[in-house]
Amino acid sequence: LEKGRIRREDVLKEIGEREGEEGYAEISKSGGLNEILEEFERKFIEKALLENGWNITKTAERLGIPKRTLYYKIKKYEIKKNK
């Protein structure tokens, strides 16, 4: 990080270092920083939901966010529970 700012290159480097780990390899390396961060956040939330059996309370606690925020992000990213 340069002067407390996250640069696109920093995110791509982190993704590259984690490539091959579940959930990271599928993150697109094209697009702007906002798109990359949103895609990362969506995949991170999806993984947390799966790990917690789609228990919203547990997932929100694990992510350190209010349940209301988690519901908002699920709707925003159109995350669906696979049956």
Radius of gyration: 14 Å
Report how far apart the termini are.
40 Å
Global morphology: elongated
Structural class: mainly alpha
Regarding quaternary structure, what we see is single chain
Number of strands: 0
How would you portray this structure in words?
The chain starts with 7 loop residues before the first helix and ends in a 7-residue tail after the last helix. The model has no long low-confidence stretch (mean pLDDT 80). The chain has helices at 8-18, 33-51, 56-63, 67-76. It has 83 residues and is mostly helical. Helices cover 58% and strands 0% of the residues. The protein contains four helices and no strands. The chain is elongated and about 35 Å long. The longest helix is centred in the middle third of the chain and has 19 residues, at 33-51.
Brief digest:
The chain is an all-alpha fold and 83 residues long. The protein is built from 4 helices and no strands.
Topology:
Layout: H1 8-18, H2 33-51, H3 56-63, H4 67-76
Descriptive key words:
4 helices, 83 residues, elongated, single chain, mainly alpha
